[in-house]
Amino acid sequence: MRHHVLQSALVATLLAAATACAPAVDPAATHAYPTVGRITVYDDALRAIVAPDARIERIAEGFTWSEGPLWMQDGHYLLFNDVPGNTMYRWSSRDGLAVFLKPSGYGGAELDGLREAGANGLDVEPAGTVLLADSGSRLIARLDPATKQKTTLAATYQGKRLNSPNDVIRHRNGSVYFTDPPYGLKGIDESPLKEQPVNGVYRLDRDGSVHLIEGGLRFPNGVALSPDEHTLYVANSDEKHPVWMAYRLDDRGDVLDRRVLADASDLVAAGASGAPDGLCLSSDGHLFASAPGGLLVMDANCKRLGLIETGSRVSNCAFGDDGHTLYLTSHSFVARVRVAVTGLGFQRPTGNRD
Asked: Do 258 and 236 meet the contact criterion of CB atoms below 8 Å apart?
């Protein structure tokens, strides 16, 4: 009898130890999120990138206009903005949705001339700080996620205030490229607050100097860099000229030449809702670009392979988790879909969602 008691006690001890050592079960990780939209195949090559029957999951909702998704690998969470709501949110499968920063952009007295007071595009720096296109405050800032403190990096060009910075991307040499349409201002191009004569694409150098590299686009919007960072991609959200531009860069970051990379005029003419907006790339150079109708998937030569549709306008996208989850900000909600390619910057996938 005593032998059986000791054996039972030993089993109980081992079970307790195993339970203590096992990772905590995250109930949210297996949560069944509702699915939305569909995936349309234009070319069979899409099947090697994203499965036609892949689930597009709506993971968070209730926003005025969601934008600027950014995966924070160190903390395993997604940051994104509700630009008109002037709020930055944090989301993870473990913790769900929470307000991360409010106001995310302009925090002064009510200003009647602002159309969108919040922050927009985001990018992460090697030190873990976040570059922020602050539409409402009309500047580029650095955000410390730990302290929530913002440091202004650029607010003017040639002595005049920027319009309302929209998107931002950091080059490995430390320079920063950003777009500056007037979407944050009431009246947009007709706003009395607008000081810049153009809606520019700029480069912010490490010494704090700001350089205009493109002044000929009506509504420059999303920005991205090619895998080798020798080419800058810029989306133009102009229904009369809805294109993606490619700028070949030299070692200093100056533009060597420019060309139209792809054109969405046919999608606009067909009545599809949306515009060239945010974009991101896989490590092998495939482009995932917000477009009329949804998120276009294009190869490195900008051949259209397919369309990820959420049933709503897609503003932007970002890879996250192990590099095989694509997050999409889509008007009033945020969605995700698993893909076969690896997101740029995720050369060594970790294998598990957060």
From this structure: no
What is the predicted pLDDT for the residue at 166?
A: 98
Give me the residue label for tokens 């109980």: 12
Write the CA distances from 303 to 46, 53, 131, integer angstroms.
Answer: 11, 21, 31
Class of domain 34-338: mainly beta
Pairwise CA distance, residues 175 & 244, whole Å? 21
For residue 181, which of 85, 248, 116 has the smallest C-alpha distance?
A: 116
Domain ranges of the chain: 34-338
In the chain, the amino acid numbered 296 is L
SS3 assignment, position 237: coil
Give the C-alpha separation, 331 to 336, whole Å. 14
Q: Give me the residue label for tokens 């503003």.
A: 315
Which of 264-272's residues contact partners 24+ apart within 8 Å by CB, and which partners? 264/291, 264/292, 264/296, 265/241, 267/242, 267/291, 267/292, 267/293, 268/239, 268/242, 268/292
| DSSP per-residue letters across 298-351 | E-TT--EEEEEE-SS---EEEEETTTTEEEEEETTEEEEEE-SS-BTT-SS--S
Q: How far apart are CA 160 and CA 109, in angstroms?
A: 21
229-283 confidence digits (pLDDT tens): 999 999 999 999 999 999 999 988 999 999 999 999 999 999 999 999 999 999 9
The per-residue pLDDT for range 172-199, each reduced to its tens digit, is 999 999 999 999 999 999 999 999 999 9
